[in-house]
Structure formats: structure tokens, C-alpha cells
């Protein structure tokens, strides 16, 4: 049985799953015994529903891009200092 | 048999590859980037989502997350300098280092370019592997061909701090609009005030009611791209995420350059005359 990360990788690489209607994707996940959090996230298209899988965290568990410590590593202050 | 010259003992062995993870988990990682990750002694990462971090952790047993180096009140540039130092310390220690960044590692990203530059200057092998960036996804999701009208990309704060020439006959893509004015993590948000200055600047080339697009591509494959439309005048007060990019479609038609056309017509005429002579 696949875990959530394996499922995400599988969905990301599969042409039928990646753009499948939410109900269809959730039904596939359901039959394969995927976690409730993944099914809820797939149904709503809302990744924050997955945060319970990662144990939350300061950014709601959604990760790097959002929240105060989002990875945002361009030169936007570097070029001011270097000019 | 001729003996091949052996590399001198002091030849540095360490190397650096900066690779892109692409934007969407599972969909964009290239086979070559994945191989760099799998073969590295040490992997550093700066990624978009915890899920992507967990995915990466399965590809190599020694993945070190760069994200915790952001600290409340600490200037971002200090963090990026630290990232460079961390990568180079391992390269100098003779390790095969792979640094993985979301999207393309060289697009609106300072530390990968800097680390490669320093590593090369010190005689180490260092290079970058491209990845699918937010820019690539944007063209696909918004149906924009940068070749149709031309397309300028600016880091939003550079547009404010420098004198640049905007061409409103082409697309304008603004990166890092959300952190505008906030050089330190968690600094008092100056966003709306700075964004108002940005709108004032843009209003020299665009009407205030001009449509702007706020775009975010999917980072997990259970998501859809988010495409919001608003008027330019509303930009200061919109809720903007750090993962969003702002696009201004053209506000003017591409004007024919009559003088150059006339010159080219002259050239064509001369060529015709040469052929018939
Ligand atoms: C430091 S840059 C990194 C860009 C990244 N290297 C790439 O290749 O797309 C951060 C900026 O990229 C853009 N960005 C990041 N994630 C995005 C997403 N999911 N969708 C659209 N734009 C995004 C935003 O403009 C953000 O301010």
C-alpha cells in the first residue's frame, strides 16, 4: 500500500490522475486505502488539509513557500547591498 | 604503455551541482537532477512544501534543510550568505554536494549562482541543472507565449529602487511582490504602502483599471493553479501570498517601427536590383 508521499509522487507522474476530476481521484484513493487527510486534500484541492500528516508546524505544515519562513531566496536585498 | 599523468594530490575532489526540483511534486523533477540528488554525499534543500521535503528525503540519506536558517528579524541576505557558506564548507571538505531548490535553481535565486561562482573560483567543479520554474508553469497555465508580444520579468523591489524601462506593449511579470519592502523575516509589513508606490510607478504606463493577474502554480499534484484577476489600483490591498507572481498583460498594441521598415524595404530593393543586374 502506498503512503501519502508515494501517492503524491504517483499522482504527479500519472497523466490520468494528475488532471482527473476530484471525485474520480478520491474514489481511486479510497479504493487503494489512502489516508483520510490525502482524500480530503484531493477532494478540496487544498494542501493545508495534509498538514496533520506532517504534524503541523509554524507554517501550518504546508511548507516552505508560505508563512514567515517561506523559501524566498532571490537577490532582492542582495542587489541593493552589492550595487 | 604510457602512464597517464596522475592528478596532483592537492586537486580538490569536492563538487557542487545546483539542481531544480521543478514546481509540482512528482511532475517536474528531471532524471538528471534526480541522479545528482541520489549520487551526492550531501544534499541541501530549499523547497516549497513539507511534502516535497519528505519526498526528497527518500532520495538521499543525508538531506539538510536550508529553511531553518531563516530567523525572525534576521535580514534575508544574511541567511542566503549562510546557505552559500554551508554548501562551500562541504565542497571544500571534498564532498559531492547537491543543492536542490524548488523550480529552477537559477531563476530569482541568489545563493545557487553565488555558490557556483565561488566554487569555480576555488577550482572545484560546479554547475547548475535547470528545472521547471514558476515562469514555465505561468506560460502554460495562463496561455501566454512570451514570443507573441515580448515579456519582461522584474523582481518587484528592483523595479522600485532602480530606473527601468517598462514596455507596456509586452507582458510584464513581477516576482516577489508579497515580500516587497520586508528585507528581514517577520519585519513589520510595509507591503501595502510599498505596493501603493509600485502602483503609482506602474500607472505611468498602465491605466489604473488595467487588469492584473495574480498567479500561483500547483506545488502539490492535488492542487490546481490559482489565477485571480484584479484591477491594478487594487494591488496594494490584495491578500498576496509569497508564492504568487503578478502578471500585467499588454496595455498597448505593438506599434510598427516605420523608420526601420522603410530602411529594410530599401535593403530589399537593393537586393532585388542586384539580382536583376
Ligand atoms: C525566490 S523566487 C524563486 C523562483 C523559483 N526559483 C522558480 O524557478 O520559479 C520566489 C518567487 O517565485 C514566484 N513563485 C514561487 N512559487 C510560485 C508558485 N507556486 N506559483 C507562482 N509563482 C511562484 C513568486 O513570484 C515568488 O515571489
TrEMBL record, chain A:
Residues 54-68 have a biased composition (Gly residues). It comes from the Bacteria. Residues 41-83 are annotated as: Disordered. This is Uncharacterized protein.
TrEMBL record, chain B:
SUPFAM superfamilies: Tetrapyrrole methylase. This is Tetrapyrrole methylase domain-containing protein. It holds the Pfam family TP_methylase. Residues 16-224 form the Tetrapyrrole methylase domain. It comes from the Bacteria. It comes from Dyella acidiphila.
Amino acid at each position: 500500500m502506498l503512503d501519502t508521499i508515494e501517492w503524491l509522487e504517483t499522482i504527479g507522474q500519472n497523466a490520468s490522475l494528475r488532471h482527473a476530476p476530484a471525485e474520480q481521484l478520491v474514489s481511486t484513493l479510497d479504493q487503494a486505502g489512502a489516508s483520510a487527510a490525502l482524500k480530503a486534500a484531493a477532494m478540496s484541492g487544498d494542501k493545508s488539509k495534509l498538514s496533520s500528516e506532517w504534524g503541523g508546524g509554524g507554517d501550518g505544515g504546508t511548507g516552505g513557500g508560505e508563512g514567515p519562513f517561506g523559501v524566498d531566496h532571490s537577490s532582492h536585498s542582495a542587489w541593493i547591498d552589492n550595487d | 604503455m604510457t602512464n597517464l599523468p596522475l592528478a596532483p594530490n592537492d586537486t580538490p575532489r569536492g563538487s557542487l551541482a545546483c539542481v531544480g526540483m521543478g514546481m509540482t511534486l512528482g511532475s517536474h523533477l528531471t532524471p538528471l537532477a534526480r541522479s545528482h540528488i541520489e549520487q551526492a554525499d550531501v544534499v541541501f534543500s530549499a523547497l516549497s512544501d513539507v511534502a516535497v521535503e519528505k519526498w526528497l528525503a527518500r532520495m538521499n540519506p543525508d538531506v539538510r534543510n536550508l529553511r531553518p536558517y531563516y530567523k525572525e528579524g534576521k535580514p534575508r541576505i544574511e541567511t542566503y550568505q549562510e546557505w552559500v557558506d554551508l554548501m562551500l564548507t562541504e565542497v571544500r571538505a571534498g564532498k559531492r554536494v547537491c543543492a536542490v531548490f524548488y523550480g529552477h535553481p537559477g531563476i530569482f535565486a541568489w545563493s545557487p549562482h553565488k555558490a557556483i561562482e565561488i566554487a569555480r573560483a576555488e577550482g572545484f567543479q560546479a554547475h547548475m541543472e535547470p528545472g521547471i520554474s514558476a515562469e514555465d508553469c505561468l506560460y502554460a497555465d495562463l496561455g501566454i507565449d512570451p514570443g507573441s508580444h515580448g515579456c519582461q520579468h522584474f523582481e518587484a523591489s528592483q523595479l522600485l529602487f532602480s530606473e527601468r524601462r517598462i514596455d507596456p506593449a509586452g507582458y510584464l511579470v513581477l516576482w516577489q511582490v508579497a515580500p516587497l519592502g520586508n528585507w528581514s523575516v517577520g519585519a513589520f509589513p510595509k507591503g501595502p504602502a510599498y505596493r501603493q508606490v509600485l502602483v503609482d510607478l506602474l500607472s505611468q504606463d498602465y491605466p489604473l483599471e488595467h487588469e492584473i493577474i495574480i498567479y500561483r502554480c500547483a506545488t502539490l499534484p492535488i492542487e490546481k493553479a490559482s489565477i485571480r484577476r484584479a484591477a491594478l489600483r487594487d494591488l496594494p490591498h490584495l491578500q498576496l501570498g509569497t508564492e504568487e507572481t503578478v502578471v500585467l498583460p499588454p496595455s498597448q498594441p505593438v506599434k510598427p517601427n516605420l523608420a526601420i521598415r522603410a530602411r529594410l524595404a530599401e535593403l530589399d530593393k537593393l537586393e532585388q536590383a542586384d539580382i536583376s543586374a
